[in-house]
Amino acid sequence: MQRCALAFLLRVAACESPTGVLVTLPNGARLHDAPAIYQRWWAMMASCANSSASLKDVRWYFTEGDVVPNPAGERVSGYYEPGSHRVVLAGNGAYVGGVVRHEMLHAISRNARHDRATFLARCAGLVDCDFYCVRDAGPAPAADMTAVRVAPTALAIAVDVSRASVSQRDSDDFFEIVVSATNPLPHPIVVDLPASGDDGPPDSFSYRLASVDGSSIQWYDERAWDTSASRFAAGEMKRWVFDTKASFLRATSYEADGLYGNVPAAQRRAVTVTP
Question: Coil, helix or strand for 254?
């Protein structure tokens, strides 16, 4: 069985220019028209940010490789400059939904900072927000003292797909796998997520996309970088949006599974791929 966590799904820290000062572009950075998928991703971010900002106002620059040096000298997947209203993305991150939408959120707010209410609340699950983002956003509010600690099995976990049938010949071959976790209890909870087995935080949301014939599987495990990822108010639902491409799939029939805290959804979703 071929097992692969696709390279384009790897998340790298996205850090922004800390000031509005115009800085020199990295070597090899080239101005690029916004790809067609950016229209949909921008609409997602404008909706969660309650903004009417225009994608056309942003200038996009792509570079080669996995990372790009930001103005502070850090090697990141992308950054936003408020002074020039431009986004610079490492080539391999230019089509990673969570990375691109992260920078879009900065561009929509015209702010290089990571506002907790935006990145980790209103738009949580749509943007990557790892260690650097969480650190910049500041500490989470104190936990509800009435919250009960529970295992991930106490949650109602579900998975859905934006399109059940995708074509590799379609000019827009992106589709989304959406994983949700809902607290069905009438009181707040804190979920005890299983340890990751390494020095990093535990897994929160995950997905698996496996071919029915068993020939291939792709997956991604999102880490709980912020403590708010495991806190649920009574009846609260959290979700995570994972992006993938039909052109990366080699079989014709797949099943999408979603997990939270390594607990799978009650039901998988079928995805059919046509060449």
Answer: strand
| Phi and psi angles of residue 140, each rounded to the nearest 5 degrees, phi first | -70, 155
| Residue 99 within a domain | yes
Residues 155 and 109 in one domain: no
| From 43-47, 129-133, 221-225, the region with the lowest mean pLDDT | 129-133
Asked if residue 253 and residue 154 are part of one domain, the reply reads: yes
Report how far residue 29's alpha carbon sits from residue 60's, in angstroms, rounded to the nearest whole number.
Answer: 9
Distance in angstroms (rounded) separating the CA atoms of residues 222 and 202: 9
pLDDT tens digits, 237-252: 999 999 999 988 989 9
First CA to last CA distance, the chain: 21
The tokens describing 113, both together, are 């900072």
Task: Indicate if 9 and 89 belong to the same structural domain.
Answer: yes
Domain that holds residue 98: 2-137
Model pTM?
0.89
